[in-house]
Amino acid sequence: MKIATYNVNGINARLPVLLRWLKETAPDVVCLQELKTPQEKFPLQAIVDAGYQAIWHGQKSWNGVAILARDTQPEETKRGLPGDPEDEHSRYIEAKIKGIRVGCLYLPNGNPAPGPKFDYKLNWFDRFTAHAADLLTANEPVVLTGDYNVIPTELDAYKPERWVNDALFRPESRSAFEKLLSQGWTDAVRKLYPDETIYTYWDYFRNGFGRNAGLRIDHFLLSPQLDKKLVAAGVDRNVRGWEKTSDHAPVWIELAD
């Protein structure tokens, strides 16, 4: 099974890019972030015509997450992250697909830090970590993937010294990510490529992609049941170079049956 994650940075604005990528790579499952569209304006027919069924949690102008599955309907298991009924951001959706529970997340950016937005990021992270712990106790195969907005280590940033005061790289964010991993999750890309420079995001400004001045902030975490089934992982870096593309590139893993 091939599972991908892609922060599309506006699904309707980037729809030609998304459809081209789906046609060329045909992942079995796709998690999307930053839909930036209300629920009723999700381009479902175009997705269906491409061979996928979908569930999504839209939000006008901001956020938004979706899970697509090729030739099957995702069975939704959760919409929104537990722990704060006042939080109306569309940042988490979860489904069962062919025996695997897939959580798709768009973790808050948190800038400027310190400040209320950073506090919200850390609070969201705490809630997500608690939910992840609950998922592990169910003793079933789980993938938690999406835009984590966390640079885990210096290897994951071009010139990391420039990011020391950024919410993505502050010690609190990195510590939260480490705490999550310590529950027993596997960082899939780092398991296969422990020492390689791999980026998933390049800023539009200052020719970030051309200079390969990137970040690795889109991650796959695997439960112990899937750790040994991981056979491949990668970044479809070329997609970042397409016209009118997102500032993220799709990231994918392959799991043995």
Automatic annotation (TrEMBL):
<comment type="similarity">
    <text>Belongs to the DNA repair enzymes AP/ExoA family.</text>
</comment>
<dbReference type="InterPro" id="IPR005135">
    <property type="entry name" value="Endo/exonuclease/phosphatase"/>
</dbReference>
<keyword id="KW-0378">Hydrolase</keyword>
<dbReference type="InterPro" id="IPR037493">
    <property type="entry name" value="ExoIII-like"/>
</dbReference>
<dbReference type="InterPro" id="IPR036691">
    <property type="entry name" value="Endo/exonu/phosph_ase_sf"/>
</dbReference>
<keyword id="KW-0460">Magnesium</keyword>
<feature type="domain" description="Endonuclease/exonuclease/phosphatase">
    <location>
        <begin position="4"/>
        <end position="248"/>
    </location>
</feature>
<keyword id="KW-0479">Metal-binding</keyword>
<dbReference type="InterPro" id="IPR004808">
    <property type="entry name" value="AP_endonuc_1"/>
</dbReference>
<dbReference type="GO" id="GO:0008311">
    <property type="term" value="F:double-stranded DNA 3'-5' DNA exonuclease activity"/>
</dbReference>
<dbReference type="Pfam" id="PF03372">
    <property type="entry name" value="Exo_endo_phos"/>
</dbReference>
<dbReference type="InterPro" id="IPR020848">
    <property type="entry name" value="AP_endonuclease_F1_CS"/>
</dbReference>
<protein>
    <submittedName>
        <fullName>Exodeoxyribonuclease III</fullName>
        <ecNumber>3.1.11.2</ecNumber>
    </submittedName>
</protein>
<dbReference type="InterPro" id="IPR020847">
    <property type="entry name" value="AP_endonuclease_F1_BS"/>
</dbReference>
